[in-house]
From TrEMBL:
<dbReference type="GO" id="GO:0004356">
    <property type="term" value="F:glutamine synthetase activity"/>
</dbReference>
<dbReference type="Pfam" id="PF12437">
    <property type="entry name" value="GSIII_N"/>
</dbReference>
<dbReference type="InterPro" id="IPR022147">
    <property type="entry name" value="GSIII_N"/>
</dbReference>
<dbReference type="InterPro" id="IPR052725">
    <property type="entry name" value="GS_Type-3"/>
</dbReference>
<dbReference type="InterPro" id="IPR040577">
    <property type="entry name" value="Gln-synt_C"/>
</dbReference>
<dbReference type="Pfam" id="PF00120">
    <property type="entry name" value="Gln-synt_C"/>
</dbReference>
<feature type="coiled-coil region">
    <location>
        <begin position="612"/>
        <end position="639"/>
    </location>
</feature>
<dbReference type="InterPro" id="IPR014746">
    <property type="entry name" value="Gln_synth/guanido_kin_cat_dom"/>
</dbReference>
<feature type="domain" description="GS catalytic">
    <location>
        <begin position="155"/>
        <end position="585"/>
    </location>
</feature>
<dbReference type="Pfam" id="PF18318">
    <property type="entry name" value="Gln-synt_C-ter"/>
</dbReference>
<comment type="similarity">
    <text>Belongs to the glutamine synthetase family.</text>
</comment>
<feature type="domain" description="GS beta-grasp">
    <location>
        <begin position="58"/>
        <end position="150"/>
    </location>
</feature>
<dbReference type="InterPro" id="IPR008147">
    <property type="entry name" value="Gln_synt_N"/>
</dbReference>
<protein>
    <submittedName>
        <fullName>Glutamine synthetase type III</fullName>
    </submittedName>
</protein>
<dbReference type="InterPro" id="IPR008146">
    <property type="entry name" value="Gln_synth_cat_dom"/>
</dbReference>
<dbReference type="InterPro" id="IPR027303">
    <property type="entry name" value="Gln_synth_gly_rich_site"/>
</dbReference>
<keyword id="KW-0175">Coiled coil</keyword>
Length: 695
């Protein structure tokens, strides 16, 4: 208890260190979303500085989240010169506003290269914190990042806008149900984080892991995950020591890290927090990823957050557990004991279903990047088809709504295991579906398509906005009603009839579901470049503009950035593959082939009667595969050159997907085939067996 939050300038610390009037003023902004009173900035800054310096801090930084998907910071010391000496100073102006160079961050055309000015603005709703690295302590202040002309250059500003949009529309609906006290609704998130650990010595010998974060070559070992013995297995001492230090760092930062376990693939693990306000949850997930990577190095390991670091075994995702909470303490997705009678719950549930069906393309887009393309639909993650899992109880209620009257809820009861000494367990209302991309899990929805490396801000911006739109449409109808109950029943029935097609409680991995989804008219967008286009569709532009989440200019900028990142990622991977092929694998194959040829000559020289057929067969196989690899390397070089010569961004991305991506798979297959026949002492790269099973 003493450890948790000790490095956070939280409300408890502020209550102790700020004058009562200042604390009360600031707390109203944090709790109620009221405008920040600039007159309190100097007082808060002074208290924040004193607290940080007492704990060893010498520098402060505005900690922000540009469109790179990771965090950024510029450190300034508290020292100011004074009469030949120095003072420790930190003003309200320095707290509220910073000015990092904006020209070198992705802007999608919002800023020209020569236009450098950008601003960071203090986000007082996310608490400042101290980061300890070795003997260095830095005060980190969560901030928003915008351009000189006012456009959002980061992931925080649109997230905060989307939270406000959701609150506005949700409050309208709640007031229709007679809730006069509610003033604010916020979305809540708990982000489960999957990751791999590899020994640092292996990582440093793998150019692909260093440059691309994933293995571009690598034959499967004789054992992978097929024995299902790693999942939830006993955690090895080395990993457990690492997890202990990760937890301690996160707890100091106020991150409620709750669960840790072995994941499905060997070398794969998961950490999960308790849910919290989406803005803070997003900041905390960035901290989680940073801590996972930083602490791993102290244990001579490297944490891999790529969505598919090892082909052939489970990839890494990030499950986004999303709900809505009102300031009077309600979880708006809590069904209650009799959900069929809970009209308020059914309204928010139906709004969510409507939003997911209407904007399925946007949800797919929110999880699209080069890494996740290798993972989605690979019998470990949901396919590129968006659907909703409700479970038997709620699906039955939806059927009743469609039929015109809700009469009952399927009860869960208890489960008798059949052993007298074991307790009778209360049975949940429905089973869970681990194959669904958007699954209801009791009192929240679990969006399971996010990749491990993702900032959760993008998907949650979209979820908040599209559900705000559905709630707006509901409120627009019901606020004009003269018979609320009757009109609500009709609204829910009409919505259920129109959007029931998106509900699917079966196996999302099956080929049958792909065919069924097509019959239902649900979109299936496997390609990242195609998925990204959903961001600038007419429907997307309209919904973001309607809720002031993105201007048209900001939206197109993000599309350009995401397309550019996709192309750059594949370009780096292709160049790394070519380099590894030409400077490592092909020379190794030639060396080994020469050794085998020398063996044939040496044995034959002793006696022509000696059998050298095995060596000759191996030499022929080596020569064939070596020739194929050389040809595939040249083909990839050509495809890469042609793709890089395309000026139009959309056409270039399509060429990378169709040609470069395809040739990378071809080149990998020949490289992996060579690994299987070249003697272990010659092979220049750490193998899957070493990387996945040696920790």
């Amino acid at each position: 208890m003493e450890m948790f939050g000790q490095n956070v300038f939280n409300q408890s610390v502020m209550r102790d260190r700020l004058p009562k009037s200042v604390f009360k003023n600031l707390k109203k902004t944090i709790d109620e979303g009221l405008p920040l009173d600039p007159s309190i900035a100097d007082v808060v800054a002074s208290a924040m500085k004193e607290w940080a310096v007492e704990r060893g801090a010498t520098h402060f930084t505005h900690w922000f989240q540009p469109m790179t998907g990771i965090t950024a910071e510029k450190h300034d010391s508290f020292i100011s010169p004074a009469d030949g000496g120095a003072l420790l100073e930190f003003s309200g102006k320095e707290l509220v506003k910073g000015e990092p160079d904006a020209s070198s961050f992705p802007s999608g055309g919002l800023r020209a290269t020569f236009e450098a000015r950008g601003y960071t603005a203090w986000d007082c709703t996310s608490p400042a914190f101290l980061r300890e690295e070795a003997d260095v302590v830095t005060l980190c202040i969560p901030t928003a990042f915008c351009s000189y002309t006012g456009e959002a250059l980061d992931k925080k500003v649109p997230l905060l806008r989307s939270i406000e949009a959701l609150s506005t529309q949700a409050v309208r609906v709640l007031k229709l149900f007679g809730n006069a006290s509610v003033t604010r609704v916020t979305s809540t998130v708990g982000a489960e984080q999957e990751y791999f650990l590899v020994d640092k010595s292996f990582y440093l010998q793998r150019p692909d892991l260093m440059m691309a974060g994933r293995t571009l070559f690598g034959a499967m070992s004789s054992k992978g995950q097929e024995m299902e013995d790693h999942y939830f297995g006993s955690i090895k001492e080395r990993v457990l020591a690492y997890m202990k230090e990760v937890n301690e760092e996160l707890w100091k930062l106020g991150v409620s890290a709750k669960t840790q376990h072995n994941e499905v693939a060997p070398g794969q693990f998961e950490i999960a927090p308790i849910f919290e306000n989406t803005n803070i949850a997003t900041d905390h997930n960035q901290m989680v990823m940073e801590v996972l990577k930083r602490v791993a190095l102290r244990h001579d390991m490297v944490c891999l957050l790529h969505e598919k670091p090892f082909a052939g075994v489970n990839g890494s995702g990030k499950h986004n557990n999303w709900s809505m909470s009102s300031n009077d303490g309600q979880n708006l997705l809590e069904p209650g004991r009799t959900p069929h009678e809970n009209a308020q719950f059914l309204t928010f549930l139906m709004a969510t279903i409507k939003a997911v069906d209407t904007f399925a393309g946007l949800l797919r887009c929110s999880c699209a990047n080069a890494g996740n393309e290798y993972r989605l639909g690979a019998n470990e993650a949901p396919p590129a088809i968006i659907s909703v899992f409700l479970g038997e109880q709620l699906a039955d209620i939806i059927d009743q709504i469609v039929a015109g009257k809700t009469k009952s809820s399927e009860m869960s009861g208890h489960m008798d295991i059949g052993v007298s000494t074991l307790p009778s367990l209360p049975k949940d209302a429905t089973d869970r579906n681990r194959t669904s991309p958007f699954a209801f899990t009791g009192n929240k929805f679990e969006f399971r398509m996010l990749g491990s490396s993702f900032s959760i801000s993008g998907p949650n911006i979209i979820i908040n906005t599209i559900i705000a739109q559905a709630l707006k449409e509901f409120a627009d109808v019901l606020e004009k009603s003269t018979n609320f109950d009757a009109d609500l029943d009709k609204l829910l029935q009409d919505t259920a009839k129109k959007h029931q097609r998106v509900i699917f409680n079966g196996n999302n991995y099956s080929d049958e579901w792909v065919q069924e989804a097509a019959k239902r008219g649900l979109p299936n967008i496997p390609s990242t470049p195609d998925a990204l286009k959903e961001l600038i569709s007419k429907e997307a532009q309209e919904v973001f503009a309607a809720h002031s989440v993105f201007s048209d200019k900001e939206l197109h900028a993000r599309y350009e950035i995401m397309v550019e990142q996709y192309v750059k990622t594949l370009n780096i991977e292709a160049l790394t593959m070519i380099d590894m092929a030409n400077h490592s694998i092909i020379p190794t194959a030639i060396e080994y082939a020469t050794t085998v040829a020398a063996s044939v000559n040496a044995v034959t020289a002793v006696s022509s009667k000696l059998d050298v057929s095995t060596q000759k067969e191996l030499l022929e196989e080596l020569s064939d595969k070596l020739a194929a690899m050389s040809a595939n390397t040249k083909a990839l070089e050509k495809a890469l050159e042609e793709a890089n010569g395309i000026a139009d961004a959309d056409k270039q991305a399509a060429a990378f997907r169709a040609n470069v991506f395809t040739m990378m798979l071809e080149l990998r297959s020949t490289g992996d085939a060579l690994e299987k026949i070249i003697a272990a002492k010659y092979w220049p790269l750490p193998t899957y067996r070493e990387m996945l099973f040696v920790l």
